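sry for the spam today, last one i promise. struct tokens for design, 548 residues
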């Protein structure tokens, strides 16, 4: 997409936050400057106001040619840009002023800020980040700004202008006269020695508590349970964020109280002050991860599009850096839109995974032209074989109308309900991707019990009456039985056959699946991919689009 078209789209979406892309000449100046540096084998580039990511991609490509691995983190406010982030860019925040910069570890920072407020952007970046080097593209008058001079002095950094130019011939023209400024640690650096860019570090500020975390632990005696209920019942994001902020404030108060406590009192309690403070800090780190994990696994606009396994993969791709992403309404909105935009990428995989999940001789029947007979117990439940082996073994086969599968049976009742819900939801997600839309409703949440047949109905205004999509029964022995409707099973078998290359026409599908061509033809011709609505009104975000 050209810059002109991108700017037009940004304006249409009311997201033109002074987007003036860095020019090729400016990027070249930075690349040439980096050639004079000594750079470690792996660094983290943090771009603040990433826009279309042309800068971070150019720098990453340049350093990759020098065998330097570059991890990229980015803050960006415009959803139009976020949805188009390259896969190697990790989103860490939507709003510059709401993002805890101190917590974000980086080796190098780049920022081409809005020139109407460049002073406060420069000052905040200089005082709250601790990268080895920072590059700014800012108006020439920055050198006369007292606040910026003070920030440079306090951070013991040196500024060097490496390029002067303008946007008169840029992709998006402007009259501003700008400089590309390198800010780096020159103190103690011998004359003529290269400046150094090493591994990622965060700012050394005592009040900062988010400098890394392990996997989320249980958040005890907090508002987390209430937030879970809100997420599960479709509550607005603002309320969830309010619970998060209350929990965070409470932990901060505990930390500050412990930090101020007299060492003699701590000694009387036979507790190490350092150990106690570190425990509180760890709990604070866990909090972000816990809320983001729950949000991704329970927020309906996300769970209706992705199966449990797909959400896990997406978490690893998008939110594996959750320790750096504050749980704010704007970030929830940005993450949700990113998930929706990428959801179609998972549709095919989700259908294939469902086939593999049921791949055993009891659940499959060979196509008419497939003369092989699957032996009883062959590749049976919990087989250790790789997916490719399973698919090859059971090629040219279809799912039966009654399926048996394993599931995780926990000793804890709440885990049982959650596991049952995840299994049921996975089938609903696949059904939607096959065009069986509408509201797919379980009779009642109270019906989630072992040994009882649960029915999921399809409620659609385009259908004369409600239809049973599937029924499912869970058993204590760790299996469940599911019976998809004939419509669901037919759509699923056609999609499986097309995805694996077993079915190439409606006529072949009709013959192999032993179903009338009149039923097969309209289904076969339709794509099994769907486009999702992206309206904020459907997301239950809890604030208007302007806030995003």
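last one done:
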């Amino acid at each position: 997409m050209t810059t002109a078209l991108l700017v037009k789209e940004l304006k249409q979406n009311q997201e033109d936050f002074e987007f003036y892309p860095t020019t090729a000449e400016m990027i070249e100046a930075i690349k040439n400057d980096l050639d004079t540096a000594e750079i470690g084998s792996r660094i983290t580039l943090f771009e603040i106001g990433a826009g279309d990511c042309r800068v971070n991609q150019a720098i990453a490509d340049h350093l990759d040619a020098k065998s330097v691995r570059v991890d990229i983190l980015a803050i960006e406010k415009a959803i139009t840009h976020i949805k188009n982030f390259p896969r190697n860019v990790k989103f860490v925040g939507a709003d510059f002023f709401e993002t805890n910069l101190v917590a974000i570890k980086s080796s190098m920072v780049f920022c081409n800020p809005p020139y109407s407020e460049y002073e406060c952007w420069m000052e905040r970046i200089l005082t709250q980040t601790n990268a080895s080097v920072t590059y700014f593209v800012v108006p020439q008058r920055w050198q006369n700004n007292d606040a910026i001079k003070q920030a440079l002095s306090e951070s013991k950094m040196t500024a060097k202008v490496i390029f002067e130019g303008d946007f008169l011939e840029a992709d998006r023209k402007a009259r501003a006269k700008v400089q590309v400024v390198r800010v780096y640690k020159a103190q103690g650096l011998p004359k003529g020695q290269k400046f150094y860019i090493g591994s990622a570090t965060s700012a050394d500020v005592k009040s900062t508590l988010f400098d890394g975390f392990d996997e989320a632990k249980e958040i005890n005696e907090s508002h987390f349970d209430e937030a879970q209920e809100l997420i599960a019942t479709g509550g607005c994001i603002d309320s969830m964020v309010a619970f998060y902020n209350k929990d965070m404030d409470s932990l901060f108060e505990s930390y500050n109280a412990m930090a101020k406590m007299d060492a003699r009192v701590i000694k009387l309690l036979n507790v190490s002050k350092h150990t106690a403070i570190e425990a509180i800090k760890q709990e604070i780190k866990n909090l972000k991860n816990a809320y983001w994990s729950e949000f991704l696994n329970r927020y309906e606009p996300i769970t209706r599009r992705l199966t449990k396994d797909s959400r896990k993969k997406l978490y690893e791709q998008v939110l594996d850096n959750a320790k750096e992403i504050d749980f704010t309404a704007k970030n929830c909105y940005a993450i949700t839109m990113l998930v929706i935009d990428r959801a179609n990428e998972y549709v095919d995989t989700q259908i294939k995974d469902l086939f593999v999940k049921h791949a055993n001789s009891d659940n499959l029947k060979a196509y008419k032209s497939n003369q092989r007979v699957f032996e009883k117990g062959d590749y049976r439940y919990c087989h250790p074989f790789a997916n490719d082996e399973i698919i090859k073994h059971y090629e040219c086969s279809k799912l039966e109308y009654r399926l048996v599968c394993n599931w995780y049976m926990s000793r804890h009742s709440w885990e049982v309900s959650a596991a049952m819900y995840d299994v049921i939801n996975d089938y609903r997600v696949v059904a939607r991707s096959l065009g069986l839309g509408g509201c797919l409703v379980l009779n009642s949440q109270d019906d989630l019990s072992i040994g009882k047949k649960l029915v999921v109905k399809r409620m659609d205004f385009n259908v004369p009456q409600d239809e049973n999509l599937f029924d499912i029964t869970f058993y204590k022995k760790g299996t469940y039985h599911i019976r998809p409707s004939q419509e669901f099973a037919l759509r699923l078998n056609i999609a499986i056959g097309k995805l694996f290359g077993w079915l190439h026409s409606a006529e072949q599908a009709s013959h192999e699946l032993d179903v009338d061509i009149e039923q097969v033809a309209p289904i076969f011709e339709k794509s099994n991919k769907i486009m999702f609505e992206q309206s904020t009104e459907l997301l239950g975000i809890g604030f208007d689009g302007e806030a995003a």
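Residues 221-342 form one domain. ok im logging off now
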